[in-house]
Amino acid sequence: MKQSEIKELSTADLNEKLGAMQKNYTDLKMAHAITPLENPLQLRSLRRTVARIATELTKRELQ
Fold first, then answer.
1. What's the rounded Cα separation, in Å, for the pair 1 and 53?
2. Which residues contact 47 (CB under 8 A, 6 or more apart)?
3. Is residue 39 helix, strand or coil?
């Protein structure tokens, strides 16, 4: 997800997406520990998306 897409979502949607993305990231990380993923860069992109969503939520709380 791009930052512009994240800014358009509501806070409730962001919280929902954050939970889903974190679960997906942990599942992929566990799968990668057992057998290497075909594309390990998925982990990096997912981790960065989680960070972008968390940053947007924090920014909205501070405003």
1. 9
2. 25
3. coil
Query: In angstroms, how far is CA 3 from the centroid of its own chain?
Result: 12
How would DSSP label each residue in 7-36? HHS-HHHHHHHHHHHHHHHHHHHHHHHHS-
pLDDT, tens only, 20-56: 999 999 999 999 999 999 999 999 999 999 999 999 9
Residue whose C-alpha is closest to residue 57's, from 1, 6, 20, 23: 6
Cα–Cα distance measured from residue 62 to residue 28, given in angstroms and rounded to the nearest whole number: 32
The pair of structure tokens assigned to 7 is 């800014």
